[in-house]
C-alpha cells in the first residue's frame, strides 16, 4: 500500500515538472513571429497560407507594454518576387493593450492570383505617448 502512494506521488511530481518545463519552452507569444519593437510597443505577425482560400494573408498583433496610452504609426511592407505592397498602419493602444485581427484593421491579403508573400517588413515605426484620456 505504501509503495503505491510513492508511485502516485512520483508520477504527480513528474507531471508537474513536465508542465513547468513545457511552459518554460513555450515562447511568450506562441506561434507569433516577432516583427519589430520600439518604445515598449511590439509588433508580431502570423502568416496564413491561403487565408482567403487562395491567397496568402498576414495578421499583425500589437502589444503596448507601457502603463500609458500611445499612438502608433508605421508602414507595413509585403514583398513577393518582383512585387511590393505597402500599407500604412496607425491607431491608438491603451495601457497594456493587445490588438490583433481583422476587426482591428490588422489583417491583409496583399497579393492576388495566388502570389506568395516572400518577406514582411516595417518602415517608419513611430510611437508617441497619447496625452488625451
| Unreliable residue runs | 18-26
How many strand elements? 8
Distance between the ends: 65 Å
Number of helices in the DSSP assignment: 1
State the secondary-structure class.
Answer: alpha+beta
> Beta-sheet strand percentage?
over 45%
* N-to-C series of helices and strands: HEEEEEEEE
Q: What portion of residues is helical? A: 10-25%
Largest sheet: 5 strands, antiparallel
Computed CA radius of gyration, to the nearest angstrom: 21 Å
Mean pLDDT: 85
Shape: flat
Brief overview, please?
With 133 residues, this protein is α+β, with helices and mostly antiparallel strands. It is 18% helix and 45% strand.
Description:
- With 133 residues, the chain is an alpha+beta fold.
- The chain is built from 1 helix and 8 strands.
- It has one helix spanning 2-25, and strands at residues 33-38, 41-48, 57-64, 70-80, 83-93, 98-100, 107-108, 119-129.
- The strands form 2 sheets. Strands 1, 2, 3, 6 and 7 form a 5-stranded antiparallel β-sheet that branches. The protein has a 3-stranded antiparallel β-sheet with strand order 5-4-8, with no helix packed on it.
- The longest helix has 24 residues, at 2-25.
- Mean pLDDT is 85; it is low at 18-26.
SSE layout:
Elements: H1 2-25, E1 33-38, E2 41-48, E3 57-64, E4 70-80, E5 83-93, E6 98-100, E7 107-108, E8 119-129
Antiparallel strand pairs: 1-2, 2-3, 3-6, 3-7, 4-5, 4-8
Amino acid at each position: 500500500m505504501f509503495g503505491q502512494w510513492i508511485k502516485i506521488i512520483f508520477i504527480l511530481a513528474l507531471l508537474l515538472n513536465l508542465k513547468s518545463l513545457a511552459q518554460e519552452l513555450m515562447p511568450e507569444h506562441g506561434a507569433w513571429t516577432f516583427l519589430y519593437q520600439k518604445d515598449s510597443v511590439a509588433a508580431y505577425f502570423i502568416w496564413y497560407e491561403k487565408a482567403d482560400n487562395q491567397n496568402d494573408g498576414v495578421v499583425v498583433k500589437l502589444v503596448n507594454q507601457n502603463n500609458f496610452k500611445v499612438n502608433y504609426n508605421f508602414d507595413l511592407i509585403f514583398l513577393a518576387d518582383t512585387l511590393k505592397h505597402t500599407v500604412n498602419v496607425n491607431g491608438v493602444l491603451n495601457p497594456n493593450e493587445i490588438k490583433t485581427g481583422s476587426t482591428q484593421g490588422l489583417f491583409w491579403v496583399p497579393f492576388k492570383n495566388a502570389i506568395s508573400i516572400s518577406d514582411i517588413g516595417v518602415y517608419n515605426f513611430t510611437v508617441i505617448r497619447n496625452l488625451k484620456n
